[in-house]
Amino acid sequence: MQSNSTSLAGERGTSLMRVSRGTLLLASSRAALARTLVAIALSFSPSVAMAQAELKLSDAQARNLGVRLTHPVAVRTDLTLPYPVQIVIPTQQLRVVSAPMAGMVANLLVGRGDRVSAGQPLVTLESPSFVSQQRDYLHALAQEHLASQQLKRNMDLFEGKAVPQRVLEASQAEARQAALVVAERRQMLHLSGMSDEAILRLGQEAAISGTLTVNAPQTASVVEVTVSPGQRIEQSAPLIKLARLSPLWAEIAVPATNIRAIRTGAKVEITGYSTPGKVVLVSETIDPATQTILVRAEIPNDGELHPGQTTAARIGFLSAGESAWEIPYNGLVRRGEQTSVFVATAGGFRLVPVKLVAEDQDHVVISGHLTDQDEIAIGGISALRGILSGLGQ
After folding, report:
1. Whole-model pTM?
2. If DSSP codes are grouped into helix, strand and coil, which group holds residue 69?
């Protein structure tokens, strides 16, 4: 028993010595690792000037850090990245042609997409109300004629002192009232779509028609037909929707983070369309669902753009003489509101401040003191930033 206890104690002592040695070896390994990391950092010999933010690294060291390089691409005519856009008709160029009175649609003379001229017939209606208007106009003409004849007789009688002055004045008032009624009835026929020539012919021939023709008020394109032949409609019911298709609006959805670079009057280019437009509105509100801001551009249309079309647009953002560059998204270094890029030099890298103009999920557009010969770091950015951070950057 005593020998067994002695043996067990010896084994425990040996185990404790092994644990202690292991702990010492682990501590020694950690210290060695720390010294190794310091040695690696020192081996980079990072000479950093606070103002210029330069790192001196060899090509081999840069490769070990996973640094990858690319050349910035000059953005054509200093435009933003493409944004989604929808082509729409300006509201002031839309015109709804309505039924001047109740009736039934007899004929449709145009269809959707047709180009019409001012005064061109669009729809014919059969309307009892139109018959009543013509009858009322003819009645007003007859009453005006009678009032005029009565006034002439009373003027002659007054000159012969056959009637008192009050009779003459009453005749004058009746004549004026009859003329006002004729003017009112004529205006009603005008509003119904009758021309001056048709009204004159109605007065001369007294030929009442039950068919009313609705004409185009302006030269435009038919964008919608809302009725069908045989349909009965009420007064003011919409019949045809017309629109002038030049210029058109391009409504562009711009991410809120990019809106600072866009101003009213900026040049806008539509993908696949040669004629540029200009920004006429930068909305002051954000779409809560998409976090985008509406930018509206006015685009002259020679027939190549179509309302409802979806495409892409680039917006000008820089003044003449400035340059813009497109690089991959992961090449941009952000420090709060400041943005910069790592530019390769003969002995390492230089952190160059740039201005962020536009971005999407894959690319950013920047402006700054760069050339297409520069090489921009797009990989190993975290390692480069870590070295700067360790040196007080």
Report:
1. 0.61
2. strand
Fold of 54-79+321-390: 2.40.420
Instruction: Name the CATH code of domain 92-124+216-243 (choices 2.70.98.10, 1.25.40.390, 2.40.50.100, 1.10.10.410).
Output: 2.40.50.100
The three-class DSSP label of residue 114 is coil
Model confidence pLDDT, tens digit, residues 328-382: 999 999 988 889 999 999 989 999 999 887 787 888 888 888 999 999 999 999 9
Q: What is the DSSP string of 115-159?
A: EE-TT-EEEEEE-HHHHHHHHHHHHHHHHHHHHHHHHHHHHHHHH
Name 104's bridge partners: 126, 232
Q: Which tens digit of pLDDT belongs to each residue from 320-335?
A: 456 788 999 999 999 8
Instruction: Please name the fold of domain 84-89+245-315.
Output: Elongation Factor Tu (Ef-tu); domain 3 (2.40.30)
Q: Which residue has the tokens 């060291």?
A: 61
Q: What is the DSSP string of 309-361?
A: -EEEEEEB-S-TT--EEEEEGGG-EEETTEEEEEEEETTEEEEEEEEEEEE-S
254 vs 193: CA distance, rounded Å? 45
The residue-averaged pLDDT of 219-237 equals 96
